[in-house]
Amino acid sequence: MTVGKNNGHWEFERDLKPSENQGFVYLIINKDTTRAYIGKKKFFSITTLPALKGYKRKRKKYTEMPWRSYTGSSTELNEDIEKLGKDKFRFLVLAECKSQAELTYTETNLQHTMNVLTDVLPDNSRKYYNKAIGAIKFLPPTVVSEKTREKLRQAAYNLPKGTCSHCGFTCDIANLAKWHNDNCKDKPDENSNTSSR
After folding, report:
1. Phi and psi at residue 91, in whole multiples of 5°?
2. Fewer CB atoms near the end CB (10 Å): N or C, the chain?
3. Residues 6+ apart with CB under 8 A from 123
């Protein structure tokens, strides 16, 4: 992959087109460790200005962002770039996007697909610098061993038993409290008993 003449440090198959697109999704890779970061960058920021005198419609001001030298929003990644040098990293554009919606979808879809929150390197360290997806800090599921699962099953099976005073059904006390006794469908309706007196 080559670097376009006007792309700054970003590698892409051609010059990026800020005049036609909202922004781009990128991949930054540490050449030595292969640790990476997936993110997005908009070409322009938009500021809403008051309407001109005699007009109701507010104005929008577009300011080009410093995207050509952008190094990602991850603090940890930028600390490594500062410490190791920019030449130790590759800056790759994965896709240009025409709208904000496409930009957000492409970024988050790639982050989920590439398992940026859970993948690890051979030394068991995290493969990606990403700590969130779409600005949301998801909590990856904890892997529970089969041995632990069996202990939990046995603990559930060994709960004390009880019998419902209304329907006579016998079960563990957790289900008894949830579905029987005061919550039993066979419990007499107190209102109907009162009205029949």
Report:
1. -120, 105
2. C
3. none
Tokens (6 digits) for 98: 């025409």
Q: Which residues pair with 60 in a beta bridge?
A: 48
Which residues on adjacent β-strands are paired with residue 61? 47
Q: Which residues of 83-109 are buried (b: 16+ CB within 10 A; e: fewer)?
A: eeeeeebebbbebbbeeeebbbebbbe
Closest CA to 143 of 159, 122, 120: 120
Q: What is the C-alpha to C-alpha distance for residues 99 and 44, in angstroms, rounded to an integer?
A: 12
Could you identify the residue written with the tokens 């970003």?
10
Is-above-0.90 flag for pTM?
no
Strand stretches in the chain, DSSP E: 23-30, 36-42, 44-49, 59-64, 89-97, 161-163, 170-172
Closest CA to 133 of 191, 93, 74, 185: 74
Distant-in-sequence, close-in-space partners of 1: CB < 8 Å, separation ≥ 6: 11, 12, 13, 92
pLDDT per residue rounded down to tens, the chain (197 residues): 556 678 999 999 999 999 999 999 999 999 999 999 999 999 998 888 888 888 878 888 889 999 999 999 999 999 999 999 999 999 999 999 999 999 999 999 999 999 999 899 999 899 999 998 877 766 666 665 777 777 767 776 777 888 998 898 988 777 888 788 888 888 776 555 544 44
